[in-house]
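R.M. (postdoc): so does anyone remember the format we settled on? I'll just put the structure tokens first.
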């Protein structure tokens, strides 16, 4: 099993970083007025916040999520590049 596609490249890192900057995490909490307040957080923000608070379990969960996003982006880019090179020939 070759894992060369996981090698950090500029395009993998850039796309992963852009995805992690998007507000992907949604939180709903009851407000004091009886309604629901909705907040959206980006994974990068949560990573830095959990690290500053010293809350390591959620930090490791977000780090695992970030790694999963990186692996997903790498797999998709690897498949797209292989399909594109076969179409080019």
């Amino acid at each position: 099993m070759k894992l060369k596609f996981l090698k950090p490249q500029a395009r993998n890192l850039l796309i992963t970083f852009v995805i992690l900057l998007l507000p992907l995490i949604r939180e709903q909490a009851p407000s004091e007025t009886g309604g629901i307040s909705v907040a959206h957080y980006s994974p990068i923000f949560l990573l830095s916040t959990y690290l500053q608070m010293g809350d390591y379990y959620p930090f490791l969960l977000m780090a695992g999520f970030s790694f999963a996003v990186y692996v997903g982006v790498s797999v998709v880019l690897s498949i797209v590049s292989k399909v594109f090179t076969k179409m080019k020939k």
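R.M.: ...and that's the designed sequence above, right after the tokens. Also worth knowing: The chain has a mean pLDDT of 92. DSSP finds three helices and two strands in the chain.
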